[in-house]
Amino acid sequence: MNIDPVILALQADMRRWRRQIHQYPETAFEETATARLIAEQLQQAGIKVHQGLAKTGIVGVLCRGSSSDSIALRADMDALFIQEQNRFEHASRHSGKMHACGHDGHSAMLLGAAHYLASHGRFDGTVYFIFQPAEECRAGAHQMINEGLFEQFPAQRIFGMHNFPDIPVGHFAVKSGPMMASFDCFEINLKGQATHAAMPHLGDDVLVAAAHLVTQLQTIVSRQINPADAVVVSVTQIHGGNTWNALPDSAVVRGTFRCFKNSVRVQLEQSISHLAQSVAQSFRIHADINFNPENPGYPVTVNSPDETASAIRAATAIAGASGVNAAPTPSMGAEDFAFMLEQKPGCYIWIGNGSSEGSCLLHNPNYDFNDEILPFGAAYWVRLVESELPV
Fold it and tell me: What is the widest separation between alpha-carbon atoms in the chain?
């Protein structure tokens, strides 16, 4: 472990910020108290604060020296609609909401790095500290970009970080190329003629059609996609009917699909549409197909080669060569940081959160971010800035 004592001394503050954010979780575009805490801490450190992008987004700007070089560091702030089951003192006090993905820790680590860089940082250029709302399924990164994020804060490259259970504390994992999968949703509305359950021949059974459709969708991965391409198609919802003795006139099938190539992403959408229409036709019903009906789908999170090399060097400086996995298996989880990587070269790294036993995996009602890793994350950010913006 190679961490500056000043950063280690910040651990108590980072823990306090993290647990306050955890105790009062806020979901997409409602992170007002979280944003206020972050803005106050940035201002106390002497960092210029800009507020209002994507409603609750915060961007801190720290300039030093005369160089025109710049770098952006991003942390997400939002919580999930999950009822926390933990009973410790800093457990969620907002019913039905909790930080089950560690965004509280991400914000705290970036705040710690900001404090250090403002008071002790040795760099020449501009650092943009981006605190982003609405990562969880609401594409806050996409909205910040659409509202002018990179026009107002023209970083040359951008970096993100996420905690990852079952990677040891003090370790990192990162690779060039696809790091996390794309994420798209589908909604298929099946419509037919309702009838008495005792007289199915007088109507159209949309529920049987939905059952057939679910099984047919699973053949996309096994029979239509190149076996060398990693793909997931998951049906997550089926809704239809409201009584025992009647066949409904409609049913809804919803789900997601994920992959690591844009060409495969297009193929998946086409295959889902074709199967839905084919099943509907075979049952003499109608199918309406909508993709990403509420939010834009997330693209593949793709790390650029040069920035990945920079991330590996910074992580190695903190954790040592044995503490950095430079060839991790990409995750089928998705990240809206991918939108930022479509705009700027950059890299998304995983920081070990330790064993999932006890604290559980991400998006679990018993999950809690591991405060032991706060100095590692802050030290990584500091090393990255000082190496990318050398004096």
Answer: 81
Residue type, 106: H
| 378's tokens | 């802050």
Could you check whether 5-179+300-388 and 184-291 share the same CATH topology? no
Domain 184-291: give its CATH code. 3.30.70.360
| 3 state DSSP class of 107 | helix
Q: What is the rounded CA–CA span in Å between residue 150 and residue 49?
A: 15
Burial of 51 (0-12, 13-18, 19+ CB in 10 A): middle
Q: Rounded to 5 degrees, what angle do the CA atoms 25, 26, 30 make? A: 165
Say what the pLDDT of residue 356 is: 87
SS3 content of the chain, % helix, strand, coil (to 5): 35, 25, 40
Do residues 275 and 212 touch, judged by C-beta distance below 8 A? Answer: no
> Which H or E run contains 131?
strand 125-132
> And the tokens for 122?
């040795």
Question: Alpha-carbon distance 203 to 131, whole Å?
Answer: 54
The residues pairing with 177 across neighbouring beta strands, listed in sequence order, are 303
232 vs 181: CA distance, rounded Å: 10
Work out whether strand 250-259 and strand 301-303 pair parallel, antiparallel, or are unpaired. unpaired
**Which pTM value belongs to this model?**
0.95
Tokens of 19: 């647990």
* pLDDT tens track for 58-117: 999 999 999 999 999 999 999 999 999 999 999 999 999 999 999 999 999 999 999 999
Find the mean pLDDT for residues 138-152: 97
* Residue-range domain boundaries for the chain: 5-179+300-388, 184-291
**Which candidate, 237, 235, 240, places its Cα nearest to that of 218?**
235
**Does the domain formed by 5-179+300-388 have CATH 3.30.559.10?**
no
